[in-house]
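User: Please fill in residues for this 216-position structure.
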């Protein structure tokens, strides 16, 4: 039945016979027709997504710009914005930092794989101890070629969204910081701007989980 509904916890190794196939706490999302459209499961049962993360990552609903913690920078042809799908992080909560590169029409940035001599699009992070940052999740690229060149490119265009999962292990009330470094080179089919590198900072309030706070 778990397989039929598509909610099997795939984080457990099938060779682990003691736990494989046993239901574990998690969340699954149902659409208006009753079909499962998304799921959130973690090896650590205490981890839960924030409400804004569920709505955006699961149902593709927009994040309210007025409530999102964000930082942004604008350069020629490209606007870069980093926003957190949460207004605060409690212990064991997971949210996503979404990095948006909004490109002017006719511009693209490069994805991987990329020929030598060109600058790929990348992100890296540094965060307050106790914030665990996962691997960046890049969107799919589009094949691209330029007349007269033998190289084959893979590019992003339009609104490029890169997702970074963030889980809090901080148990104190305070503020934590996430520094997101974004690198890219914007080009048309005729010319390229110089490679860019920007650091965006997100500062988020932290607190114990509701359960832990109730024990104090």
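Assistant: Residues filled in for all 216 positions:
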């Amino acid at each position: 039945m778990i397989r039929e509904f598509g909610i099997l916890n795939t984080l457990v190794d099938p060779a682990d016979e003691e736990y494989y196939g046993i239901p574990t706490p998690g969340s699954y999302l149902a659409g208006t027709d009753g079909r499962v459209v998304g799921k959130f499961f973690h090896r650590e049962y205490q981890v839960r997504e924030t409400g804004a993360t569920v709505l955006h990552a699961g149902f593709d609903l927009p994040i309210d710009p007025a409530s999102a913690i964000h930082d942004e920078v604008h350069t020629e042809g490209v606007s870069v914005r980093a926003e957190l799908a949460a207004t605060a992080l409690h212990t064991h909560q997971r949210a996503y930092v979404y990095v948006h590169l909004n490109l002017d029409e006719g511009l693209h940035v490069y994805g991987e794989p990329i020929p030598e001599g060109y600058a790929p699009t990348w992100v890296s992070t540094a965060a307050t101890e106790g914030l665990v940052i996962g691997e960046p999740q890049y969107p799919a690229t589009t094949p691209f070629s330029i007349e007269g060149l033998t190289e084959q490119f893979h590019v992003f265009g339009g609104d490029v969204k890169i997702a970074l999962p963030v889980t809090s292990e901080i148990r104190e009330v305070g503020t934590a910081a996430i520094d997101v470094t974004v690198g890219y080179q914007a080009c048309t089919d005729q010319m390229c701007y110089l490679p860019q590198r920007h650091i965006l900072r997100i500062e988020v309030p932290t607190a114990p989980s509701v359960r832990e706070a109730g024990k104090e």
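For context: The chain has a mean pLDDT of 88.
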